[in-house]
Amino acid sequence: MFRKRILLLLTVALPLQACVVGPDYAPPAPGALGVPGGYSTPAPAGQPADIAAWWTSFNDPLLTSIVDRARSGNLDIAQAVARLRQAREGLVQARAARLPSVSGSAGYGRDLLDAVGPRDNFSIGADASYQADLFGGVSRSIEASRASYAGSGYDLATVQTSIAAEAGRNYILARQAQASLAIARNSLAIQDDNLEISGFRVQAGLVSSLDVEQSRAQRAQTAATIPSLEQNYQSAVNRLGVLTGQAPGALKAELEATAPIPAGPAMIAVGIPADALRQRPDVRAAERRLAAATAQIGVAEAQLYPALNITGNIGTAAASLGSLASIVTGGLFAGLSQLIFDGGRTRSQVRSQQAAAEGAFALYKQTVLTALEDVENALTALQAAKDRQAQFAIALDAANNSAILSRSQYRAGLTDITTLNTNESSLLSAQNGLSNAKADQAQALVQLYLALGGGWDSTSVPQAPTTQTP
User: Cα separation of 439 and 437, whole Å?
Assistant: First the structure.
């Protein structure tokens, strides 16, 4: 009879759970998000390349190694993994609301003051409770938790892409500082030679001591740039150490050997804006946040409708363990509750969730437009760096020829120290300009890879690890 009553209640309750209140979520159309058909900045045509591991396109083994270590050891990524695991447990908890809650109890007592002598008392019992999801509050809660879990996975991917890009940028900065230091030290050696020659010419009475003073000033100005360049190099190396989850100077020995600024492909195909939006994890995370906020409206609305609660208990008590099964008692109760008046609090919660969903949509649209802005800016920066590099190459060739002629003419007494110093300064400026343009092109390429969402596998939703990281 007890089992029949349970089956009867479930037969009545389960069909009612098909009624789910609240709006059903549908992803907004690209037109509602302001997504254009193409970029306003000229971009190479063709299908986007696989950019999941874009750092390998620079053909620099050390860069590849550092980025891989940053992706595995970075502490920001570790925090994002922990948040993803937390979101997964939130989904587990939401799903558990579909199942009944069962608790058991056992007790023992001894009556020492009984008239017939001490007597033992044993008891065992179990209680169960279940709330039928009549209007889909639990279903909407699971839907929201599932979307939040996916959003946390995309948040993890966002951190991974950002860390990979930051590691790439700081590696480029380190190599740029090394290149600038080499240029400054080479220029300093030439200016030492010019200072020595000007001293000989003063001793010979061919020029005044003004030439020596101007040469000293020129050399000192070049030497003054070296400490700043060394500081820039050390800062980049320290940052790379921390990005890989190590002490600031952990990578100093590996980066000590000078290497050229890494140069990736001149240009990559970016496709259409919709391609970038599908690849960008932050855009996909914002879309999942909107889905979760929409589902929360249904969770709030379900509180306005009746709730069916089913409770049951079973228990037994006896003076000995062997007699516990002799008399078993139990009960089953079903109750329907309905909110009548709460001062408008529950309806206010519904309106609050609707407002939250509107805010989530605005954030989603803003994330989409910002992503497109990032791509446009990266394309412009890459083209500008390429154009600057071409012009600095011409300037370097001309400045190098002028400096060579000026040195030979000064030694021969055919020109003055001012002309020589001017041409030496132009050469130093052109050398630094070309080196900086190369670094800017590499940085712009990293910026473009990041803007396109490179640095993660976009074909799957990131999942929380099954084991806890120590």
Answer: 5
Q: Which amino acid is located at 387 in the chain?
A: D
pLDDT tens per residue, range 78-131: 999 999 999 999 999 999 989 999 999 988 888 766 656 677 788 898 999 998
Whole-prediction pTM = 0.89
| CA dihedral sign of residues 81, 83, 84, 89 | positive
